[in-house]
Records
---
Amino acid sequence: MCIVQPSHSTRFDGKEEPSDMNEPLVSIVVPVYNAAPHLAHCIRSILRQRYENLEILLVDDGSDDVSLPICDMYARTDRRITVLKKPNSGVSATRNLAIGAAHGKYLQFADSDDWLDPNATRLLVERAEETAPELPLDGCAGKIVSGFAWRYVGLCSAKEGEKLLGDNGKPLTRSVKIKFPGQMETPLKASVSEVSIDEATGLARFVITCEIINGDVLRLNRAGAQIIVGETTGLRVPIDAIHYLKEDGTESETQGENYIPGVYVKYGNLARFCKIDPVDNDHPLVTDGEYRIVMPSSSDKTKTVSEVRLYDEIIVSGQNLYDGKLL
C-alpha cells in the first residue's frame, strides 16, 4: 500500500503551514476510555507541539461517556488526527491496534490525562536522530530506541545478576524499577530485557528497558543506576501459618506442584481456608524474617487469587484444621 503524506497540516489554531517533509513522521498514540473530563486538555497539548509532522491516533476503547464525540470533534479540526474505535478490551490491546495502524518512523505514547510540554516531541526526535538505537549502549542511560523507550546497559556481580532472573531463568518483566541516585531519584517501572552471566569473571551484563520518558531521563548521559527488584507491599503472614491442600481437600505437610497454598482465618467461631497466590514468576517468593509477604484479596482476579482480607485474623497454630471447623 502506498502511503502519501499530506503536503500541509492544519493546526488547532486554524492556520495552515507547509510540513517539513525532511522531518520524520511521529505517530502519537492516545488510548481513550471514559476520559471525557481531561481528554480535551490532553489533545490540545499534542496539537500545540512545536514539532508538527505528526500523526495523532486517538483510539477509543469502547467508552460509554462522551469521549468518542470529543475525539471526532478534534479530528474535524485537524487532519493529522485519526480516530480508531474498538470494543472495550483494555489498554494493551488498544495500543497494539494503534501500532498496527501507525505510519510514523517513531511512536510516542501518551495517556488521555497527560499534558505534553510543547517541546516534548521535538526533543525526543532530536535525541532519536542523534543516536544509533540498534547499537549496544555500552553503559549509557537515556538512549532513545524505537517506540520512545530507552535502555540502560550495566555490569554487576553474577550474584546480583541472578536477582534479575525469574524462577524460570528468564529476565524479569515485572516488579522491576530503575532510578539514578543523585540525578533521578524517582524510580520508574521497567523490565529486564537481557541478562548475561559470566561465571568465569563473576560478572553479569544486563539490559533494562523503560518506556517512561521525562525531562530527568532526557538529561541523563552516563550514570550509575540502582535497580529495584521485587519491591512488594502486602500482608505479613507467618510462614508457619501457611498450609497446602491437595486437590481432594486433604492437607499436605510439604508444598507440591499442584497443591493449593493458603491460611486459615477466624470467621466468627469457624476456621475458614483462604487461598493465597502460589509462588511463580508473577508472584515471586518475598519473605521478611519468619513472615511471607502475600497480596490481599482484590476484585481484579488477574492480579491475585488471594482470598485473605486486610482485617482477617490468621490462625497461626492449631491441630486438625479444616475449612468450616468449629473453633
---
Amino acid sequence: MRFSFRRGQSARKSAAAKVAPRATETRTAASETEVAEVAAVAAPTVIREAAAAARPTRLRAERVVDGIVRVTAAVPSVGPTRKAWTRLGFAPSRLHDFDACAAFDVHMEGCSLRFLAPPRRPANLPLPKIVSDRLIHGAGLLGWSWSCEDTASAAESIERTTSTSFVEATGQRQEPSEGAGLVLLPPALTPGARTMLECNRPAEHTEHPNGVTHMDHLVLTVSDVDSATHIYEKNFGLSATCLVSQERRHSYLKVGDTTLELVGPLEPGSGPLAGALWGLAFRSPDLDTTVECLHGNGVPVRSPHPAREGGRITALGLPLGGIQIAFMGK
C-alpha cells in the first residue's frame, strides 16, 4: 500500500507558518528504573513553536481518531529482527513488502507492531526515506497509525483544526486513493513521532507463546509535558490525565485500547519543544506465564513489581533494536 497526502483546499491560503522539525540528540533525563520500564532510545524530533512563555489554554478539537492501530519501527534488516522477536515469545508474520520497504508484523488485539527495513534499491517514496533517516540515529521506533473511519474526512478535519495544509507541510502533491490509503501527517502535528491516518479494518490477532494479547501503552519523552499534551489534545480531540511521580510529569492520553504516555521534567526545558519515542509496554493476562516463557527462551527479565498504572510490570534489562520493552499484567 502506498502512502498518500491530502491536498489542502485551494481557498485555504492563510495556512499557519510551516513548522520544520530537525533532529537533536537531546533526550529528557530519566531514572534508571523508569528507563528500564518504558524508555526506548530514539532520535528526538524538535518542534519549533511560536508560543509565548505562558501555558497554553487547552481547547480540544473534535475527536477524529478512534485508536492507535499500528506502531512502526525502523530496523536495518528484518530477518535478524524477526528472529529476536520470536525469541521473546511472539509469533511474527511472514516477511512481506510494504511501500517498497521489507517488513513483518506482530499482531495483537486491536493493534500491531510493524518493523520496516529500507529497500535495497532506491525508491522515490516517502516511507523509505523516513526509515532511512531514522536509521542514521540507529534502529528504533518511528511512530504509529491513528485509526479512523475515513482518512480523507479525518485529514480534512485536522487541516481545518490546525490551519495546516498537508501538501504545503510535506512538499508532496500526491492524492489519496478514494480515502483508502494511508495519509502521512506533517511531523509538527505529533511531537516526537511520525504518524499517519489509517482506515479502520478488522484487526488481525495472533496467539503468542508468551501470552501477550495487547499493546498497553507507548511512551514519549518530551521537554515540556504541558505543551506536548496541548498539541495532541488540540490536533486530535484527545483528553489527558496528568500526574506527578518521582520528580517527573506524566500525561496519559487514552486512544482506544492503547494509551499514549508523555513523560517529562517538572519544569519545562528551555528552547523549542523536543520529543523522542522511548518504548512499548505489552499486556498479558498472566504476567507470570510471560516471564516463564522469556526465561525459558534465555531472555533475562526483571522480577515483576507493582506498576504505577496498576497491576504489575517487568522489563528487559537492555533495549532490543533501540526499543526498551516492558510487560504488564496481573
---
Amino acid sequence: MNNPKGIAYAALSSSTFGLAPLFTVTLLRDGFSPFEVLTYRWGVASAALLLFGLATGRRLRIARRDFGVVFLLSLFRAGCSLSLVFAYANIATGVASTIHFLYPLAVALAMTLFFRERCSRRLFSAIAVSLAGAALLSSGDIRSNGGDATFGIAAAFFSVISYAGYIIGVRKSRAAQVESTTLTLLVMAIGAVCSILPLIAGYIFALFIGKKVKAKDEPTNAEAIGQTYEELVASYGKLPGAFMSFAPIVVPIILMGVASAFSMAGSNPAIIVFLGKPIIALAVGLILGVILMAQSGKMGEFYALTDDTLKTVGPILFVTAAGGVLGKVISSSDLVNFITTHANTLETLGLLFPFLLAAILKTAQGSSTVAITTSAGILAPLMMTLGFVTPLDAALVVVAIGAGAMTVSHANDSYFWVVTNFGEMEPQDGYKTQTLGTLVIGVAAIINVLLISAIF
C-alpha cells in the first residue's frame, strides 16, 4: 500500500476493464459475432498502443529469442478474451465478470503449488469464499437472451485459466525482461494484423464455393421444414449439457496448454507434465467421451460406433503415418547444407523463402505440424545468413512459415479426410473446397506478411 502510483494504475485498469462487458454486450445484441468484436477491439487497441509507444519514445523491438514466448502469451491472452466474450453472449455479464475475476486467486494458488511462493490461511479462505460466491451466482436462471448457461459458465472459467496462464507466463518467463508496453503491443498486434487479408479472402471464397459445392447430408428446403426443433431434439433422445459435450475436445487442449505454460515458465511438476503429454491428454478426452455415452444411455452401441469410427479414421491414420515418415525423411536430408550453399540466391526471395519452404513440406507430406517444426529447425541457424536480422524480421518469418504450413491441404493431409468424410463430400469436392480454400488463405496470408514487411 506504499505505492500510490501503482494503486492509481490498478484502479484505472479495473475501471476501464469493467466497461468492456457494457460495450461487448451492446455489439453482440447488434449482431456482431464474438470474433468480430475481438477483431475490432484488438485492432483499435493495438493502434492506440502503437501511438502511445511512439509518442513516449518506447523501444518497440524484442530479441529474437523472446519472440516464441511472446507468441505463446498472445495465444493465452486471445483465448481469455474470446472465451469471455462467449460467456457474455450466453450468461449474465455480472456472473461472467465475477467468475472471470477469480483469476487472481488462480494465479496465487498456482504460484503457491508450483513455484513455492508463501501461502497463508487467508489465501485459501479467499479461494473458498470466492468459489462459493461464484457457485451461488451461477445457480438459478442466469442465461442471457436464451443462451446456454452451462457453456457460458465453462467459457468464463476457461477465461480464468487462460488469463492466469498469461499472468504466470509474464511473471516467470523471459517475457518479464521485455518492456511492458512493447510486450502488450506485440501480444495483441501479432495475432490481429496478419489475419486481416486471410479472413477477408477466406470469407469471399466461402461465399463463392458454397454456391457450387453441396454436401450429401445438406437438407433440402422440404427436409429442413419437415421437423420442428422439439421433434428434432426428441429424435436424438436425451441430450447432454454443453460442458460434457465439449469436454472430450476442450479438456485435452486445456491440459496440453497448461503443460506448455508451466514448461515456458521453467516449472515442470510431474502431474502437469504427465497429463500434458498429448497421448495422455487425448486418453483423458476418450474417457470423457465414454462417460458421455454412458450418460446418454448408449453404451449398448459402443462396439458398433467404434467399428464405424475405425472405418472412417483408419485411412486417415494411415495417411498421417505415411506423411510423418516422409517428413522425417525430409528433415534428415541434406537440405540445410543446400540452403547454406545457395544462401545468396535464396536471400533474394526474402520472406517468400520461408513461406515456400513450409508450403513445399506441407504439400509433400501433409502435416502442418511437421512443416512448421521442420521449417523452423532448418531456418533457425540460418537467419543471419538469409538476412533476417531484426526482431521484426524474426516475427514475420514465423508468420510466413505459418502461412506456408497451411498451403495446401489435400489427400495426404489427415484433416482433408476429416473435412470430406464428416462433411459428407466426395474427394473431388474436398479438392474444390478444402484444397483451394487453404491455397487462397495461405496466399492471402503471405501477401499480408509482405505488405507489413514493406511498410515497416
